[in-house]
Amino acid sequence: MADEPNPEDLEIADELIAERRAEAPGETPADMTAWQRPITAAIDVINYRAGQIIALMMVPLIAIVVWEVFSRNSFIILQNAGYEDFARSMGLGPTLQAYDLSRMIAGVLWMAGAGYGLMRGVHIRADFIYRFWSDKTQATVDAVAYLLFFIPSMIFFTVVASQYWFLSYETGERLALDSAWQPILWPARLAMPIGGVLLLLQGLPEIFRAFHKMGKEREKWFVRFLPIYAVFIIWLSLAIFLPDVIPGGAWFTEIMSARPNLDKPIIGLIMLGAMLFVIFIGFPISFTLIFLAFVFGIWGSNFKLTTLLMTLNTNSTMLNDQLMAVPLFVLMGIVMESAGLMERLFASIQMIMARVRGALFIAVLIVSTIFAAATGIVGASVTLLGIMAGATMSRSGYDVKLAAGTITAGGTLGILIPPSIMLIVMGPVLEVSTLDLFRGAFIPGALLASLYLIYTLGRCWLNPSLGPILSEEDQPETSKFYGAEVALICLGILTVCRVFGLGMGGALGTVVPFGGLFGLIIALGLVYAAYRKLAVLRVMVPVAVVFHLYLSLVAGGGISVWGMVFSAFIVLLAILGRPIYSKEAEGGFYFSDLWDEFFAGLMPPTILISFALGSILFGFATPAEAAAMGAFGAIILAIAYRKFTLPGFFDSLIKALEITVLIMFLVAASNFFGAQFSALGTPRMMTEILLGLDMAPFLVLLLVMALIFLLGWPLEWVPIVLIVVPILLPTVQALDIHGLSSYDLMVWFGILVAVNLQTAWLSPPVALSAYFLKGVVPNWDLKDIYLGMMQFMLVQLFGLILLLAFPQLVLWLPRVMGGG
Predict the structure, then answer these.
(1) Domain limits of the chain?
(2) pTM higher than 0.85, yes or no?
């Protein structure tokens, strides 16, 4: 049996990439066979340089989308204020080419970068069985799979993609269906044959590495077989694409054209079984799907239909405007992580809650919830939370099981809370709006975070020793009027939020263009002045009274009770405070230094995430536009925090490219596989069988959920969402549950799947989050981590039961915000 995963070897940039290649590009083992070393090194360097160039394309992608958002919204604001001619003279307004350019660049990113992804070892494999084998067995299986599956499928893919590109080049084909600009397509489609060639080349180093890993004794048998294999592959390729120029080509064409003896749905079942077998032996899933789709497509249908499905599905994935958000949101999270914003978030929350029992539990859950809205990277969240909270929890006497469960459960929230990468990928699969999935996930995400918090604080209330109050050395210095400090800060934040809400609603922009922005800046200035020098509060009294009267009588249409209470509070504070607003005055009131860290750590990233997420939920921006603005804002924050460096930013671009290739190439491969699987009619047959079992619809749904939960142990969410869910989808669509419409049923089902997979993340012994946490808190026993995770898995199951019983927890917000 193989050893457990070494946490130090796991890359926290993405939990799916557990086998990222450690050696530098071009570096080869000294004892690798001599003639294989230069070939391996040269191809590695080619793909490495290609990946570096391709990663830089994220910069113009961000620039194009950010300018489009700024230009369009500035034009609308100026137009509403009567300055349309001025806006046009400034060149503002919706741009004709931004939509098409941005999605073509996003498609080129992952398609042309696929070879780099293979070189870096980021293409996902299900190693549930694979990792228990010896190194020699792993290498032998890899070599056989690459020779049988990878090389033929990449040759087919490259040739067909080249033909598809040349056709668009020769005919001057333009993007016409959903485009106002109608650009020519061949420059973007060129990424398909280029990506295929780079992938095919990278297959040789992968085979040579497998030879080296299996040992010289086994390697010599494979090397002797290579000439025969090369001749066969050349003959097979020519027989398929040029049957008239090769002996036996016509015979092979006749065989491929023969009708199968089996029914097509049965061929689809064999295809499904072959897919599960190959996936579980550990070969990268994307290439498995492409090869099987080719083989069974040709067997069950014909070669022409199979190649047509391949090109159309790859092209549609490249031009999908919803999936364009994937690389941008990934980059946003990585930049925020590398800038150290999460550490400052935790420090600020920890200091504020220092005098509360279970303060570190509260800090972990609040920070994990906020960071989940920036990135869905579970490995990064769990690892960083463990680094920040683990030692302090141990030193403060916190219960290890409850602490481990809080960290791992909080870290999984990124799967569900918008803008979740999983939901972005799931939208096209379910054929529903990603926006509605985001809206539907908002309440369940808040519900689960609240359940975690209630559970931890309830346990601490019943047994205070589980989360004692922090020691004096971990508590910050404050004034004796700490409650007044908290109240004033909260009221200041509420004021800013209210001004921001009124500005977004247009109440402050009726006289001056961008009035909402100016009002927000003025409110921030007043609150900051009061914070830095409390004597300003006396000046703020008449300002606050007039301001709230204006908001109540003019903007709000009536006297605001909240405004009157706030104004009275400021007046009372000014009267009672008198001249003791200084830290030096003994027993006086002052704002302690912890609020500096609070504003520096909490507010900027929270505002950034709120802008990005709020613009999506309220429909002001598409997910892709919000993702670009979020990535741009994260870069600005990194500069403001003096954490931005060009090498560091380039490294973030590279990591974002790797995760994008991992997800998007699998999306394209699974779309091809799914289209071929559906063309065989197997999903319809499976649906008829399940519905013919005379079970209640809700029981069928429970069986589907149980299957997804069990598959969540050995598989990551990507193959489940892209392979398993499409197979089960026809069955779910045929169910009549709670009287939901077909569209609402799909939105509800999508959120149930997301929560279900989040639950599977907490189920030992497979979940990698336990190993991430063990790696950064080595003094915690793995058994205690497992026991802590299982507690929160039960809490999670309770939340899932609530969502199953009350669909309106998911559907209420999409209906309200969608005008329903």
Answers:
(1) 7-13+21-55+96-318, 323-475+627-672+680-820, 482-592
(2) no
